[in-house]
Amino acid sequence: MNKINLNAHTRQTWASLISTITAFSLLAFGTMGFAVGQEETARSQNDDEAIKRVESSGGRVYRISAADTTREISFYLSSKPVGDEQLAGINAISEVIWVNLAGTDITNDGLKHLTGLPIQKLHLERTRIGDEGLAHLKSFKDLTYLNLYDTKVTDAGLEHLKELKQLRKLFVWKSGVTEAGIKKLNESLPDLQIVGELKLEPVVIEEPKKEDPDKANEKAEEKPGESDKAKGDKKEGDKGAGDEQAKEAKDKDKKK
Description:
Strand content: 5-15%
Number of domains: 3
Radius of gyration: 45 Å
Order of helices and strands: HEEHEEEHEHEH
Distance between the termini: 167 Å
Structural class: alpha/beta
Shape: elongated
Strand order of the largest sheet: 1-2-3-4-5-6-7
């Protein structure tokens, strides 16, 4: 009897323990889910605030395609002046893989605001970016396209790009980059296409030779005479051949 009561008590204890563990697990998962939800909400709020700052500064933030959630930030052709101050906080916007800063007044210091973004395509053409600014791009391991047209970048700045193994296209036309710098970077990144200064060979057009008018007149006078003579020779030749044929025919008739 005591044994039966002991077993019943043990079962009741285990049931209570299991119930407690289950309740604790549900509470823990619920708390975790609530924390994740709060984190997502906070991230969304940060996104919204950062996007509003960009748009109020004359920039645009939009999805690259309807098929995914990746974004582009563009200040190109902004209706407002864009400098380093306008870039502050844009790295709070999630999933930004394209950034277009072409034609803006950003400087080397402004590029530090891009740190942390998974950028694949970056437009810096016609800006005041120089060699020091490119040091901020070392962490952009996914960068495939970089436009440095009409900037202050020189061969020294290209040294900062050597570890960007995914880089496939680089524009350095109208910058301080030389052919030697391009060749050196290509040794580290052989798959990189670098578009530098276009060197056009001058085309020399020769003037047509002018013919001496006196000689031209002489040729014009000679040709009709030569032609008439040739025609006369031909007629005489034809006539002589005809006479010979007629004579041969007459001789044959006589023999018959």
